[in-house]
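Subject: sequence -> structure tokens, single chain

Hey, anyone have a minute? Need the predicted structure for the following. Not urgent.
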Amino acid sequence: MTLTEALASPVYRFYALVAVALLAGAGLTLAALRWGLGRDVEHAWKSFRAWLVMVPVVLGVVLLGRGAVIFFFTLLALMAFKEFARATGLYGDWLMTGTVSLGIAAVGLVTWVPQPRQDLPGWYGLFMALPVYVIAAILVIPILRNRAKGQLQACALAIVGFIYFGWMFGHLAFLANARLAYAYLLYLLLAVEVNDVAAYAAGRLFGRRPLRSHISPKKTWEGALGGLAVSMALPWALRFTFPHFTAWDCILLGLTVGVGGQLGDLAISTIKRDLGIKDMGAAIPGHGGILDRVDSLVYVAPLFFHITRWHHGIY
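Reply:
Had a minute. Here:
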């Protein structure tokens, strides 16, 4: 992935054009609702303005190449973990949070460095083994402190923070090493967000039966099925960007995004509901925190990565 390759890539140009078209369509729709029909769309406007910043930033990062992509997603992982640590009370434990932060930085490092004695980007073997070392380091902390009280909770939160927000999300950054990095990364980023929007729209239009009333009361079975239906169709519509995928691959890809994306959203909702908070942060106006925006990607990225690697390889 380089600037020259991105500009020459029809896949990159296609997804950039789709992103611009979707933003333009959303803006025109909101304008028609606000000034044409007199609807109150203030919250949607706030969310849309954030998208006007986020989409160009992501496209720009991918345009800059592999190193920028890895750095960007590693930084997002660190920010997401910081939000999680603040919300759960772990943030006050500087040794635990520092160890997890170093572990997340290590995920980014082994994603970037070449494998020893091989002409391959990204040290995949160490990337997969890294959780063993980071968890071992976390479990040593109470021993070094000679302290037991309260350490089980701290260790558990630190391990969840590293595995979920560092290592699992780190699979998205590792896709920058794939031979079809533009197709994989840009499809995943687009498909997960389209799944979220489709589920929301279907829920608003047809929602009747709560999906998980004690976790996310506004989500409905109708919304979930609407999101799944769109996600199942999307791989076929965009199959030309990864023509080596078989029909079975497209079905798996649709299920991975359509089901996994919504499970990722519900997983973070479970945490927020248990903590009694609405959002994990306030970094993105109209969206909440970083974690509120990437919750589906965190869940979907490793599923997509390993299904694709098993069937076709990454390099």
